Amino acid sequence: MKLGTGNITLGAKTLTGVFGSKTVTFPYEKLSYNTSYTVTVPNGALTDMSGNAYAGTSFTFTTANRAEPVKKLYDAIVAKDGSGDYTSVIDAIGAAPTSRTTPWVIFIKNGTYTGHHDIPTNKPFIHLIGQSRNGVIISDNRLSGNDGNGSPVYNVNLGATMVVNANDVYFENITFENAFGYNNLAGPQALALYTIGDKFAMNNCYLRSYQDTYLTTYNSLTARHYIRKSRIEGAVDFIYGGGDVFFDADTLSINRAAGGYIVAPSHQSGTAYGYVFSNNVIIKDRVASVDVYLGRPWQNAPKTVFINTKLASNVNIYPQGWYYKMGAIPAVFADYGTVNSNGQPVDVSQRISNYEYDVKDGNGNVTSTVTGTAKSSLTDAEAAAYSYENVILRSGDAWDPRLIAEAPEQPANVNINSAFKLTWDAVSYTRLYVITRNNVVIGFSLTNEYTDATATAGNNYTYKVQAASEFGALSAASEPIQVLPITGLTFNAKKAGNTAALTWSTATENNTSHFEVQRSKNGQTFETIGTRKATGESNSVKTYQFTDVNPVSGNNYYKIKAVDNDGKFSETSVQALKFDLQQAAFTVYPNPVTNHEINFVLTTTKATKVEIRVFSLDGRMLQTEKADVQQANASFKISLNRNIPQGIYLVKLSGADVNQVAKIVVK
Fold first, then answer.
1. What share of the chain is helix, strand, coil (3-state, %, to 5)?
2. Pair 528, 518: CB distance under 8 Å
3. I want to staple 312 with a disulfide (CB 3.0 to 4.6 A). Which of 54, 159, 280, 283 is the partner?
4. What is the three-class DSSP state of 157?
């Protein structure tokens, strides 16, 4: 299947498809709750590979209701610098309560936290939320195999960097590494993560080692894991074990040039789906190119499908797809819709279905070889059955890890005043807000405001705000707002007739470039209407002025943006003025103006007195004149000052019944 002509839409949004050889998936997110949406696929928007058009379709659905969460701070905070409740993740887990039935949310500030970590069976519902995936690293270097150098060998329960025994655990924005495998790019087994419990979910995490990076549960027929938008890195059997595991839009990173294996499953007979890789990307790391097997069968009756997988540049799957021999006969080893880096279907004609394994006696001697076949391909209908809903959702429980991982919207319209008080628009479905200064978490808030009590005037600061859901999932950070080394930035706006007189001052300036005057009709979307050059370096009060000669009828919102020479900026609070302007019409001629004389024709509803003012484009008033208009339609003229040079200017007429601006060109 491929793209045809015409837009495929979800409501007003145009969707972008992820194309496999036979299917297309249209990802979407951030829909409003309790809202109806219509999906429209026009005739010809999709075609088969021969160009035959799909007839199109349209359908409507309504999203679910969702209640606003209770506003609540994190249950615990981990920080290496001592600014939290604990300095180690191990201690925070150790102090968490047992037998929870709702999430115990632990926030981890950026830092590297070392040692063996374990979440015991009696501590379900622990949610570990990292400040950032690259900044929060949980690391250890234990081995679960013999390196030949006499290093201690640990059982996987003690060897993995993080072991999750409990149910209902959720991780987000964390890197889990086994430093031995990741740094040495060599075996033996060195696990970063081992998840045993049911209903485990992980979002935007990074698992990295070399051999046996991630071990999933393999003692339960019904255990489910959900891995979303995460990166898993290794070379040999680096995802192995059992359970129904749905890998949703993940990145599989190969750090060995040739001969590696992505999976080595061991699914018990009766496992419903096994490993399902949906819309994943396979990339390379620290090697020039990659040739890799999708996997090999470890034990029992392995099940693995790769659906709509994309290979990055210089990444290749061996033509046979899977390695034929290890320790079992797989039930299903198949890939469907695999494409190369150009989006072209990969040739799967040589994918194997015949497998074998050796039976050995107690001395390791081969006594026989078992052979068998596995399902090696999927029909369109079979591939469609490996959906998130089928693999993860279960009748009888409410576990929906996509909902758990759903972050609130990005906070918008962040502002800061001279007292370092931050404000922003409230975000729906938010438990609390996280505030960072220069990428360091400095505080949390239950409302849409926060005052930085530790800030001092005269320093550069960059602030960002994130919203956290009831489960801890973090939104994208707000657009940064910056504070310059400028003190005492004050701002005042007042009406002067039908104009806005804006005045601001600074107590000191350091490396300040200029000021931008910004106006908005709604208090949210601002445009720059003028600039003023800053003094730049000053230890005394400096005052600046600007006149908005063309405010709109209704509300006008103003703020001043102070911009540093290196591009950083600070903003004043917003001032609002309301104008009730009755619009009259006038024309000016000739335009361009010659001989410094301007003629006006004014149409008003009655006779009036008008004031004519000439402004430069940056708001400086250059000339003022007055005229009495004794009739509703009148003509009059003025002479421009001869010292006004050639250029473009604004002429404003204002009075009881007029408030109009025209642009003129003086030649």
1. 5, 45, 50
2. yes
3. 283
4. helix
Q: Which of 132, 129, 159 is nearest to 146 (CA)?
A: 159
Q: How far apart are CA 157 and CA 255, in angstroms?
A: 25
Question: Which is it for strands 537-538 and 509-510: parallel, antiparallel or unpaired?
Answer: antiparallel
Architecture of domain 415-483: Sandwich (2.60)
- What is the biggest distance separating any 2 CA atoms in the chain, rounded to whole angstroms? 117
pLDDT tens column, 16-63: 887 766 778 887 877 888 899 999 999 999 998 888 999 999 999 998
Distance (Å) of CA 643 to CA 15, 308, 561, 622, 639: 58, 71, 32, 10, 12
DSSP 350: T
Whole-angstrom distance, CA of residue 513 vs CA of residue 619: 18
Q: Are 321 and 352 in contact (CB under 8 A)?
A: yes
Q: How far apart are CA 302 and CA 334, in angstroms?
A: 11
Architecture category of domain 585-666 in CATH: Sandwich (2.60)
* Residue 81 burial by Cβ neighbours in a 10 Å radius (0-12, 13-18, 19+): exposed
Cross-strand pairs, 596: none
Measured CA to CA, the distance from residue 322 to residue 260 in angstroms comes to: 11
Q: Which two tokens stand for residue 256?
A: 């060995």
Q: What number of residues does the chain have?
A: 667
For residue range 159-209, list pLDDT tens digits in order: 999 999 999 999 999 999 999 999 999 999 999 999 999 999 999 999 999
Fold match flag (76-198 vs 415-483): no
Euclidean distance between CA atoms 179 and 73, whole angstroms: 33
CATH topology of domain 490-579: Immunoglobulin-like (2.60.40)
List the structure tokens of 155: 């059982």
CA dihedral over 235, 237, 243, 246, signed as positive or negative:
positive
Tokens at 634, concatenated: 């009148």
d(CA 361, CA 159): 28
Residue written as tokens 């400086």? 620
**CA angle, 639 then 642 then 645, to 5°:** 115
- Amino acid type, 220: S
Q: What is the Cα–Cα distance from 109 to 137, expressed in whole angstroms?
A: 10
Dihedral sign from CA coordinates of 77, 80, 82, 83: negative
Cα(230)–Cα(204) distance, integer angstroms: 4
Q: With contact defined as beta carbons under 8 Å apart, do 331 and 305 qualify?
A: no
The pair of structure tokens assigned to 200 is 């485990």
- Whose CA is closest to 489, among 515, 527, 461? 515
Instruction: Centre a 10 Å sphere on the Cβ of residue 470 and count the other Cβ atoms it contains.
Output: 22
pTM here is 0.75
Q: Are 498 and 550 in contact (CB under 8 A)?
A: no
Are 469 and 431 in contact, with CB atoms under 8 Å apart? yes
- CB-CB contact of 544 with 504 (8 Å): yes
